[in-house]
Amino acid sequence: MIVAQVSDIHASPTNDNMLRLARALSWFADLKPDALQILHFTRDVCLEPSAGRKAAPA
Prior knowledge:
Number of strands: 2
Shape: elongated
Strand content: 15-25%
Number of helices: 1
């Protein structure tokens, strides 16, 4: 089984991340994975309230 993963893509008009995502998806089309996992992290949410950031929503 082949599992592909995309993580932490931050699109913005001022960077080329959408181009990178398009390249990755093109590569996945050639690879033909059995599953695709998409992970997204945001710096505005933190699981540790003691770190001085907002806690993750319950």
